[in-house]
# Entry
Amino acid sequence: RKEVEQDPGPFNVPEGATVAFNCTYSNSASQSFFWYRQDCRKEPKLLMSVYSSGNEDGRFTAQLNRASQYISLLIRDSKLSDSATYLCVVRPSRYSGYALNFGKGTSLLVTP
Amino acid sequence: EAGVAQSPRYKIIEKRQSVAFWCNPISGHATLYWYQQILGQGPKLLIQFQNNGVVDDSQLPKDRFSAERLKGVDSTLKIQPAKLEDSAVYLCASSLGGPDTQYFGPGTRLTVL
# Structure
């Protein structure tokens, strides 16, 4: 079983739509959780961290359910510029050296 | 502030040849990571350095891959000999240390023919 599993893509949505991505992780001792964004042929960039209490950054809302080992990202009012691959990322524990475990990513295409 | 620098940006080689990639992390960042990203996959850690010491190299194919960070700053990743399945983007990332945010370089896109 993969350590981090994401919804298969791609997601094609019209501008203004709301889209949700889901992710599950297998290591219950995982310490930190993130969503990264990767544009085509570019490096991953941190979009937001994910906390148990849930957190919001503008049109983006991330949720973490530790009991279910489940992470989500909600994008409201999608913009053309949101088109990218969204990577679910888990940091297993402080004892693993702080390296990141990435999911395969989910591709989002926002169309006019 | 300058970001993580990597070179070359692109490299095409034939199988069984050798290749080396270079990374210069953000100034002051103690931790340096090398990740391999195969097309359609997320990045996978190859090796992590803390200053000039190796923290984790459990996923580095040591029969053909090697990496060093001799002075605790720049790092070099080498593949010798390359195989077709090594075709990927090699990403370098750095962080101040520990759980701090990792910043990625633009990557080196390797094609092995």
User: Anything to note?
Assistant: DSSP finds no helices and eleven strands in chain B.
